[in-house]
Amino acid sequence: MNALSPLPAMGAAGCEARPIVQERGQREVFCGLTGIVWLHRKIQGAFFLVVGSRTCAHLIQSAAGVMIFAEPRFATAILEDRDLAGVADIDDELDAAVDRLLVRRPDIELLFLVGSCPSEVIKIDLSRAAARQSKKHAPRVRVLSYSGSGIETTFTQGEDACLAALVPTLPQEAPHAPPSLLVVGALADVVEDQFARLFDALGVAPVRFLPMRRAADLPPVGPNTSILLAQPYLADTAHALEERGARRIDAPFPLGVEGATLWLRAAAVAFGVTEERFDAVVAPARARAERAMRHYRDTLAGKRIFLFPDSQLEPALARFLSREMGMEIVEIGTPYLHRRHMASELELLPPGAPIVEGQHVEQQLDRCRAARPDLVLCGLGLANPLEAEGFTTKWSIELLFSPIQGFDQAGDLAELFARPLNRRARLEV
Ligand code: SF4
């Protein structure tokens, strides 16, 4: 039996080999509050209280609007004019709002106070408020805080800020604890279950997930914990976990057959799984995924795609679309590029695919118009105007709300990109 060996090209200096253009200017990206839309469904027993304006409340309501079921696990404490003008004692008002909420919702075990642009502008100290409230409501409720403001965060960075706020509360792993794996980044429950079954079949154990499904089930962390990032936008969380002694496993992200294989393989290598066992476990899932994707390759192969910066998933998506779907990449925009976390992805991107970090939306739109791509991946704010100009677009937010990671979702991921092209083709006919 041969132990799996790391892939030769993985984890080297992907960024050094390719130029990355930095662009600064007006941005068209959601703020970090948006992460609440998927996080509030993920951690049972948690509640997100945004301290913000009516604009913030509208953003979350409309982003989550179609998904609200029963009582949502988020709300907005709206800052009124007298709060913004400094007439009211903001600490007292916030404490009273938290007290009312906790009386009305006894199911809350973990409360996040989420900062916004207005709360930052008038300098509300949410970390002090959280400490005060934690003391008052312990042990029934833990209160933490993080910022989701558009000044500090873009779109997916809200999840990073939320998970990073959780890290100091994670228990220390027991002395001499056996090696464990912590998968970091929100995944749909169905995806998490699939990965859990694959890790189990590989003999990789114990495996835990962050965010956890129940607020009370905090995974322990320490020097025997290996972390495997499931999402590419978790710079602060990974840093906080590494500060606690955990070691990051370098891997591409589990998008598409190739991404899922390399991601699982990196964990398998770290846990000494044999080549034979890895192949036996992964082969059936790979075959299923190949079959599911084949159907969409005809639509996507040879088509040109322009990716606007939005979620930080863009380099991994571009890798999947070019290598597995045969698409041509016109430009890969990303709001932020973590050089170390993305090194394995960058190595797999086609040479010459331009990567632009940050955004100057006008210049980027000019480049997109000049290139006339077949498909544009972008945020909601750009999609309608581009459709009106005759472009075919895909909303990048859908890639956060849909289960797309892993083998059994590879076909669905391909379909998300094929659908707008098919729709356009039908309209033209
Ligand atoms: Fe707008 Fe800022 Fe509120 Fe986000 S946090 S909705 S960017 S005001």
Structural class: alpha/beta
User: Sheet with the most strands?
Assistant: 6 strands, parallel
Rg over C-alpha atoms, rounded to the nearest angstrom:
22 Å
- Beta fraction of the residues? 15-25%
Short description:
The protein has helices spanning 14-17, 36-42, 54-64, 81-84, 90-104, 117-121, 126-137, 157-166, 189-202, 235-243, 256-270, 275-300, 314-323, 343-348, 361-371, 380-388, 398-401, 410-428; strands at residues 20-24, 46-52, 74-78, 110-115, 142-147, 180-184, 207-210, 225-229, 247-248, 304-307, 328-334, 355-359, 375-378, 393-395. By secondary structure, it is an alpha/beta fold. Strands 1-12-11-10-13-14 form a six-stranded parallel β-sheet, sandwiched between helices. Strands 3-2-4-5 form a four-stranded parallel β-sheet, with helices on both faces. The chain has a four-stranded parallel β-sheet with strand order 7-6-8-9, sandwiched between helices.
Give a verbal description of the structure:
- With 429 residues, the chain is of the alpha/beta class.
- It contains 18 helices and 14 strands.
- The chain has helices at residues 14-17, 36-42, 54-64, 81-84, 90-104, 117-121, 126-137, 157-166, 189-202, 235-243, 256-270, 275-300, 314-323, 343-348, 361-371, 380-388, 398-401, 410-428, and strands at residues 20-24, 46-52, 74-78, 110-115, 142-147, 180-184, 207-210, 225-229, 247-248, 304-307, 328-334, 355-359, 375-378, 393-395.
- The strands form 3 sheets. It has a 6-stranded parallel sheet, sandwiched between helices. A 4-stranded parallel sheet has the order 3-2-4-5, with helices on both faces.
- Helix 11 (256-270) runs antiparallel to helix 12 (275-300) and helix 12 (275-300) runs parallel beside helix 18 (410-428).
- The longest helix is centred in the C-terminal third of the chain and has 26 residues, at 275-300.
- It is globular.
- The model is unreliable at 8-13 (pLDDT under 50).
- The structure holds iron/sulfur cluster.
- Residues 31, 33, 52-53, 55-56, 59, 116-117, 149-150 line the site of iron/sulfur cluster.
